[in-house]
Design brief:
The complex is a heterodimer. By secondary structure, chain A is α/β, with parallel strands linked by helices. Chain A is about 40% helix and about 25% strand.
Chain lengths: ~250, ~575
């Protein structure tokens, strides 16, 4: 469903993402983790067409995000860490706009279910300025889920959510994957990644340093000393990468 | 503490300049700068250089009219001051940035020190505005020729206006408190303004009948003459004092004029410093706005202009969104702001209308809506560029996005223009003595009605093109460069837009004009219609090509590289 091949993103002379390749199948939830500045957000932005890759390609359901951008974007949703909303549109109008942009003919029936699922019922007429940080996050996610895309990309999806919201959000992500969506979750919350992701991709300084299920990573000879704790695996992998770099 | 503020101001200025210079490494910014400089040279500097060489620039007209200009300017300044006092809303003169709030509001600084800092920072913008204004008015050339008083005096004048606006706003804020807690200085300054205005109003009201009966030009001279009658010279003294240095011919005359001007400036400064009791409240409101990430007033929920179906063209969705945007920010403030020039024009034309016809006023409003409207109505990419990352995730092409963004301001302004033209046409039977018969008037108005949307769309395209090509130069989102310190930037933008529009329109106008002239000889005024349609068709094709090109540029634009203007 998602195929990333040799993705490289340069900002001037800085190489934020360096020949990154991976793929995500239907029903898979991949956790994209890495230290600050590792290139996670740049990778996500290239995957959704916000930024053009310097080289390499990203294919969404067979459509190239650069050469066939409109069709590729029709099949994905990106939920950024900071919800970007139009401060003058109400909750319902945001969904109405998204429905038109993505051609969701039956949106009137979907909206109440989605608002219920994301605990936004009763807020249909509210402007973003009247919503809490968590509710804005939920609205951005509702906009992403409205057209039921087969590819979902989340950047720190739990930021600003209360404990109940966190539980529901995790369930939403898992449910969408079970329904056949390919999901990428970028987060620093390793327990979240450990709990909901079927595969983990660790990147450091723009390059992939580990890729596999938790069990596969724990079984790697260079990481086996970390046991099956993702935090230990992450620290060891990134520390090892630093050591390799220094030597 | 002054050193810290000077250090910050100097560092900010240096870094801002350095960043703008580094931006020139991008070919489009370099090309934009070259074109801008060529424009300034060709149309502004070069014309002024044609005047006699250094030291022999003919400024005798300025010398001979200076006394009248000073008095007339003083009356104008008084009117501006009255408007500032009567304006029901505080301006954002004291808006602090998020960083300033973060660093200064938590630092051991007095409010007076904060105010001094804001005054210091404003001088950079004021100086820039004076320099740009001097280029357009010829004052720069005069300064080179020895009349540097025009520049220095201009800076003094702008600084005085800035201080007075700030003081008036702080004083108005004081009156929100219960009467017993209003500071004595607020009462004193308000009383002084009432006395000055009372004296001047009294003078003009006594002679109002005589003024109204005179033609417009004579009436203007009459207003100046009355500024020298009775108590008016005393009431106008502060306004004359800040204007006088501009017109000083010699260094000695400048030094003489500088004294009274500095007195007025210092009095305004002291007034502002002593009126700072409410600065914290005002700044807190600004801080709150900053914290909420918006610099514009809060939107008010009103019904959407039309319902949006789930299927259809995506451009309509963007039109729908941007029409909602406009409807939700329309406020009493905006209505008052737009109404003031309209009322002023109505009064001026009403005073001079012989037959009671509103046609000249309506046509002037049509021109205003066509030429100035696209700068004022900004519910397009100028507002949305800050959301470019979101827009780029939408499954639409750059061309579709751009067309959708252009629609709302173009439709709204076209509707206003058509309404004005329809009223003009309806009233046109009243101009029976006019040089054009009824058919000719109708043909002319229909032609204007066809062309006005093209000109509006052309300007909206240019404004949006500027945002796409030079995002670092154009203010985007709710924030806009305002006030006299932003005047220079606005003048450059206006001039640039008119130049680009002229380049786009003139060749097509030449072709259509030739056709129109030939048809006019055979058909009379109705012959204009085919020529107008030809011109409109050429402009539509031009606009289509530009939009297609800009759409591709927009698709390639990386939001991370979009440096939002300060």
């Amino acid at each position: 469903m998602i195929v990333v091949e040799g993705l490289t993103k340069m900002y001037g002379s800085l190489k934020a993402v360096d020949a990154l390749s991976f793929s995500v199948s239907r029903g898979e939830v991949i956790g994209l983790i890495g230290p600050n500045g590792a290139g996670k957000t740049s990778t996500l932005k290239c995957m959704v067409g916000i930024q053009a890759p310097t080289s390499g390609s990203v294919r969404i359901d067979g459509r190239d995000i650069v050469t066939d951008a409109v069709e590729a974007k029709r099949r994905l949703a990106f939920m950024p860490d900071e919800p970007q909303l139009f401060e003058y549109l109400t909750v319902r109008e945001h969904l109405n706009l998204v429905a038109r942009l993505y051609g969701v003919a039956d949106y009137a029936g979907r909206v109440p279910r989605l608002l219920e699922e994301l605990e936004l019922s009763g807020k249909e007429s509210a402007l973003p300025g009247e919503l809490s940080r968590g509710m804005k996050q939920k609205l951005a996610i509702a906009c992403g889920l409205l057209h039921d895309p087969p590819v979902l990309l989340f950047d720190e999806p739990l930021t600003g959510l209360d404990p109940l919201g966190i539980r529901r959000m995790k369930q939403t992500i898992v449910d969408r994957a079970r329904a056949g969506a390919a999901v990428v979750v970028s987060s620093h919350l390793l327990h979240l990644v450990e709990e909901i992701c079927t595969r983990i991709l660790i990147i450091h300084r723009g390059t992939k340093i580990a890729d596999g299920s938790l069990e596969e990573l724990a079984a790697r000879s260079d990481l086996s000393a970390a046991g099956s704790d993702l935090e230990q695996i992450f620290l060891r992998a990134t520390g090892q990468a630093e050591t390799d770099r220094a030597s | 503490m002054t050193h810290a503020f000077l250090y910050l101001t100097a560092c900010s200025l240096k870094n801002r300049l350095w960043r703008r210079l580094r931006r020139l490494r991008e070919p489009r910014y370099l090309a934009g700068l070259v074109v801008g400089l060529l424009y300034l040279y060709w149309f502004v500097v070069r014309n002024q250089m044609r005047a006699p060489r250094r030291g022999r620039m003919d400024l005798t007209w300025l010398t001979s009219f200076a006394p009248d200009i000073v008095v007339g300017g003083a009356v104008l300044l008084w009117v501006v001051a009255v408007l500032v006092w009567l304006w029901p809303f505080a301006t954002r003169t004291w808006t602090f940035t998020a960083a300033e709030v973060q660093f200064f509001f938590t630092a051991p600084l007095t409010r007076r020190q904060l105010l001094n800092y804001k005054l210091l920072r404003s001088q950079v913008g004021l100086l820039f505005s004076v320099l740009i204004a001097s280029l357009f008015t010829g004052a720069a050339r005069a300064a080179v020729a020895g009349r540097w008083s025009l520049l220095l005096g201009g800076w003094l004048l702008f600084a005085a206006i800035f201080l007075h606006i700030l003081g008036a706003n702080l004083t108005k804020s004081s009156f929100r408190a219960p009467a017993s807690r209003v500071p004595w200085l607020a009462w004193a300054s308000a009383t002084l303004m009432i006395v000055v205005s009372g004296l001047l109003c009294g003078t003009y009201l006594v002679h109002a009948r005589a003024l109204v009966s005179r033609p417009l030009n004579d009436a203007i001279f009459g207003i100046v003459e009355l500024g020298r009658v009775g108590a008016a010279p005393f009431a106008l003294w502060p306004f004359r004092a800040v204007l006088a240095p501009i017109f000083a011919e010699t260094p000695l005359a400048f030094a003489r004029a500088l004294g009274p001007a500095l007195v007025v400036l210092v009095l305004n400064y002291v007034w502002v410093l002593w009126s700072d009791a409410n600065l914290e409240d005002a700044a807190s409101a600004a801080e709150q706005r900053q914290a909420q990430g918006r610099s514009a007033p809060a939107p008010v929920v009103r019904p959407a202009p039309f319902s949006l179906a789930a299927r259809g063209r995506v451009e309509t969705a963007i039109l729908w969104k941007n029409t909602i945007l406009l409807g939700r920010y329309v406020s009493l403030r905006l209505v008052v702001r737009v109404s003031i020039p309209v009322v002023v024009m109505a009064v001026v034309f009403g005073l001079n209308s012989k037959g009671g016809s509103l046609a000249p006023l309506l046509l002037m409003l049509t021109v205003f809506a066509t030429v100035v409207g696209p700068f004022m109505i900004r519910n397009d990419l100028r507002h949305d560029l800050q959301r470019l990352a979101v827009l780029k995730t939408w499954p639409i092409s750059g061309r579709e996005l751009l067309v959708g963004e252009l629609l709302a301001p173009t439709f709204l302004l076209s509707a206003i223009v058509w309404f004005l033209l329809a009223v003009t046409l309806a009233l046109s039977p009243a101009w029976k003595d006019g040089p054009i018969d009824a058919v000719g008037r109708a043909a002319l108005l229909v032609s204007v009605g066809l062309l006005a949307p093209m000109l509006i769309a052309g300007q909206v395209i240019i404004q949006n093109a500027a945002v796409v090509l030079f995002p670092g130069w154009i203010a985007t989102g709710g924030a806009r460069a305002r006030g006299i310190e932003a005047m220079g930037q606005n003048m450059l933008m206006f001039a640039g837009t008119l130049l680009a529009l002229a380049i786009g329109v003139l060749p097509a106008s030449a072709i259509a004009g030739g056709l129109g002239y030939v048809l006019y000889l055979f058909l009379g005024w109705p012959g204009l219609l085919p020529a107008t349609m030809l011109l409109a068709s050429i402009l539509v094709v031009e606009a289509g090509l530009v939009v297609m090109w800009l759409g591709r540029v927009l698709e390639r634009t990386d939001p991370a590289q979009v440096e939002i203007a300060e």
